[in-house]
């Protein structure tokens, strides 16, 4: 048994950092027996369940903490993360103002918000959110990385590159940060750098499926054959959806054989480059991830 | 019994097991367990590798010196949970007639949680006082996790201290040996893997079919048993760990107990109990292999985990 609650809490946080959630739960439940109505411990349970990706239980304990203390910062944070990870945008937007009122200096709220805006193609609004977060923490490498990505999406190549350099100076071992920088590099058309970043990401944390898939995709994009066929999409990406549709229709009417040839070439390039990547990573005769 | 055997036996009787006690946060001594390699069922390849790299150089240092190999270094056992790493470490201690100091997760945790009086240096000092001594660090990844992933200064201090103690072993301590065990070797700090530290990496796989049969026999021993085709059960429990097999037997025992409460008579454990238990269980090692494959494929610069891929290929693990 620990001599004080402080020591027991330190042990729980240590176990969480080792991702030993089962043991962390046991220790926290022991603490809860001594202080059965402590909102901090309820929130801690929520945090552990969040680590275990058990969103239901994380929300339950966050609710329990908020019953005791409606302004509990960690409990609100857990709620926001759960809604964000579940892609429950409506609940996220409903909870966000209250969470930010209680903890206005939590830069992750801006980060999550910017990510949602980027997903919807609202790059300018996303940039605004990131700049607000950077006003709170100007040296956050994660914020610099997502800003680099957003600038790349906005077509500001040199600014994106500058922010990439700045972010990497602060932290070069955080897989999430490196993945944003890889996306930024890919959007800028720097496929070699994208591959380098993703190789590091997958080495640090290969057990994350997104990391593996993104790495394989980066390897595929670094193939010249795939890039050559992909080249027109760089141009197409800048157009609005109705403009793309109009081009396809016109091309379909005027250059039908050419269009069919392009589609065949695109499909062939996709599968050939995918095959090359598979053999490079897994060898012959092994299934992928 | 020759004089030499008698002396060895007397020495063996005086050997101690030093363990961490969670309740009063102290190191306690008890009688040393008497396991040797003879008690470890199967794992012949693993035992051979440990003998060649760890035990023989200690027993016949001059022979190995002729080939430029030094005694000592430290041994790292890795593999899926519940496959006998702890038992194997105890058997190594038994093979070299050494005291055995068992450092578990709770002891490591207490170092982080601030009980500085139980720091790592004390543990190594205690081992030096009890030479020959094997320090067995279970869940080594908790103590020697990658320093890069540790944000807190005091977290890194423990890894640094471990490195210091291991280097100290090489420099000034003979007859103190360190064995580490981990389910997640990929989380270990790379500095721990340099020569003189944990340079012997040994993969401890799940038990093979004949070993599973032996384990099932042991777990069922002394219990009321009907006619059970253990060979068949062993064949159907591919990739099950020792712990999984124990759970399987527990489930079967519960079924027999339920029947006993209904009939009021002793009911033997039957083949059907075992089969039903098997239906609701699957090998817990599968999840480990899935993670291990990712590290072996994407993160294994030094090809340390090729052995896992080879094992998976040989046993058709998907």
UniProtKB/TrEMBL annotation, chain A:
TPR repeats lie at residues 39-72. The keyword Isomerase does not apply. Signal peptide: none annotated. Pfam families: TPR_19, TPR_8. It comes from the Bacteria. The chain crosses the membrane at residues 244-269. Keywords: Membrane, Repeat, TPR repeat, Transmembrane, Transmembrane helix. InterPro entries: O-mannosyl-transferase_TMTC, TPR-like_helical_dom_sf, TPR_rpt. This is Tetratricopeptide repeat protein.
From TrEMBL, chain B:
Pfam families: AAA, AAA_lid_3. GO terms for molecular function: ATP binding; ATP hydrolysis activity. SUPFAM superfamilies: P-loop containing nucleoside triphosphate hydrolases (SSF52540). It comes from the Bacteria. Residues 71-208 form the AAA+ ATPase domain. Keywords: ATP-binding, Coiled coil, Nucleotide-binding. Belongs to the AAA ATPase family. This is ATPase family protein associated with various cellular activities (AAA). It comes from Paenibacillus cellulosilyticus.
